Amino acid sequence: MKLTPEIIAKLAEHLEDAELKAYDVVKITDAHPEMDWDDAYAIQAEILRRKLARGDRLVGLKCGLTSRAKMKQMGVDIACFGFLVDAFSVMDGADIKLDELIHPKVEPEIVFVLKKPLKGPGCHVGSVLAATDFVMAGIEVIDSRYRDFKFDLKSVVADNCSSSRFILGNQAVPVNDVDLRTLGVVMEINGQAVSIGAGAAVLGHPAAAIAMLANHLGAYGEEIPAGTMILSGGVTEAVAVRSRDFVNLRIQALGSVGARFI
Ligand code: OOG
Ligand code: MG
After folding, report:
1. Domain edges within the chain
2. What is the reported pTM?
3. Could you identify the atom of ligand 1 that is nearest to the CA of residue 66?
4. Pocket of ligand 1 (CB under 6 A)
5. CATH says 58-261 is which class?
6. 231: part of which helix (H) or strand (E)?
7. How many CB atoms neighbour CB 72 within 10 A?
8. Ligand 1 atom with the shortest distance to the CA of 149
9. Are 62 and 84 in contact (CB under 8 A)?
10. How remote is the CA of residue 130 from the centroid of ligand 1, in Å?
11. Along the 262 residues of the chain, how does pLDDT read in single tens digits?
């Protein structure tokens, strides 16, 4: 760690304020170039601590930057991990208020729910599938607090990997009933297809993203508890939305999910 606990707390407040009041800031590594990975995850953990102290509940985890399309779009080459609280959750078909957000983008995700805990190191696609209860379709709304979505990976980790809102579909499909690599994914805005992909775009198999998360947490001596809901990462590039846009995601065998931006 290169930053003091005081600076970590200050940066967490700075980024969470930007999130809650919906304004953008410059990436924090500009002022703190010495910041390391542990600092970045410590800032994220401090944002979670602030939310829990205010009464938010932790409801899931997310993997980000797990597909080549996303890595290329954001100009980075490793994955990031973040948390989801109940305040981020939006019901299928509900409205999402744009004035609470900065510059949101939507991305199609395959969502896992575990029935057994997962503890790295050494987790792989097989261990994830054995620990998974069911999978679902999900739309993630990302909203980087950084101006123009311009960041480096440490800054985005500190910013909870741009987490903002998520919408889960209403079908829970046993993971053994589907081959997640070949599932077709179509995301539409106002009825027009804006991104098309297949599950394998996420690290060859979306379960590989969950294994990476388990191995990442294992390095800190932590596990993913049974029952955890996890977004495995955008299958395609994220797409910017505007007022009145209706976003609909269909994933083969997992059904569809949607939301309107107002
Ligand atoms: C970082 C968050 C990425 C995903 O699914 O790849 C993410 C960003 O692109 O702002 O959630
Ligand atoms: Mg995502």
Report:
1. 58-261
2. 0.97
3. 6
4. 64-65, 70, 74, 107, 140, 142, 144, 156, 161-162, 233-234, 238
5. alpha beta
6. strand 229-231
7. 12
8. 10
9. yes
10. 26
11. 999 999 999 999 999 999 999 999 999 999 999 999 999 999 999 999 999 999 999 999 999 999 988 888 888 878 999 999 999 999 999 999 999 999 999 999 999 999 999 999 999 999 999 999 999 999 999 999 999 999 899 999 999 999 999 999 999 999 999 999 999 999 999 999 999 999 999 999 999 999 999 999 999 999 999 999 999 999 999 999 999 999 999 999 999 999 999 9
